[in-house]
């Protein structure tokens, strides 16, 4: 059977016209809609059953075209063991175009006895609103699926690992650190006792000024009691000096007892106040006078104990 030459020419013309139309549609598709960005999952291997894979696609569509909502990926669709569990599409207009951001979440629900290559499916999208029927396809994305259990496992017993005794932790350095801290704490407590305690039950706490301080604190704030307070301090000076101490002996006293040197001015002021209170005019406020002597006796007690 012979084919008429005119029929062959007509068929060729139709084929060329069809190819030309397809080329025009492809060009229009590239010009009017394109995928400007795709963010696929960072990890493409070691994916297990139940893992969720997320990808984001940004599509720029030139006006008046727009993505047809009827072709949006449908949540709950399962293809080849992969379920589309979440779909979120946001659109915003800019510079005569509409930018669509499509966030897709897929969850793997499949079973395999050995690692296998799988893929997130392609998502075809149709465009409407323009003179032509255009479409754009979100490409597939491949990944390695890994089974949780090896395919050649025989029994659980054969895969059990022997229990290993936990390694002992060396705590010797912690022990020495704890002992050192305890020593520092004990030393600090003893120092606080020596600074603030009034009793005599610790060594070197029964000095003359410690006794004077205890006596002065017990004095009532009544007329005449200031003389007793002055007497107690003078007795402490005399006992420490080894004889009666007068104001003109102060330099010799401080030379022999250097721990009191920082109180030189306060001691000189004490002798001056003592002479005035005993031989000239007694203080008007006895309570304040006794409190000041209590503070002075405490400072002298600290000098006596060698603490500040």
List keywords for this structure.
elongated, 308 residues, 10 strands, alpha+beta
Range of helix content:
40-55%
Low-confidence stretches: 1-29
General form: elongated
Number of domains: 2
Strand order of the largest sheet: 1-2-6-5-4
- Count of DSSP strands: 10
The major β-sheet equals: 5 strands, antiparallel
Q: What is the element layout, followed by pairings?
A:
Blueprint: H1 5-32, E1 33-39, E2 52-62, E3 66-67, E4 78-79, E5 82-94, E6 97-108, E7 116-120, E8 123-128, E9 134-138, E10 141-145, H2 156-159, H3 172-196, H4 208-217, H5 225-241, H6 250-256, H7 264-279, H8 286-305
Antiparallel strand pairs: 1-2, 2-6, 3-8, 4-5, 5-6, 7-10, 8-9
Signal peptide: 1-23
Organism: Novimethylophilus kurashikiensis
Protein name: MxaA protein
Overview of this structure, please?
- This protein is of the alpha+beta class.
- It has 2 domains: about 30-145, Immunoglobulin-like; about 185-305, no CATH class.
- The chain contains 8 helices and 10 strands.
- A 5-stranded antiparallel beta sheet has the order 1-2-6-5-4.
- A hairpin with a 2-residue loop joins β4 and β5 (about 80-95).
- The longest helix has 28 residues, at about 5-30.
- It is elongated, with a radius of gyration of 50 Å.
- The N and C termini lie far apart (about 130 Å).
- About 15% of the residues are buried.
- The model is unreliable at about 1-30 (pLDDT under 50).
- It comes from Novimethylophilus kurashikiensis.
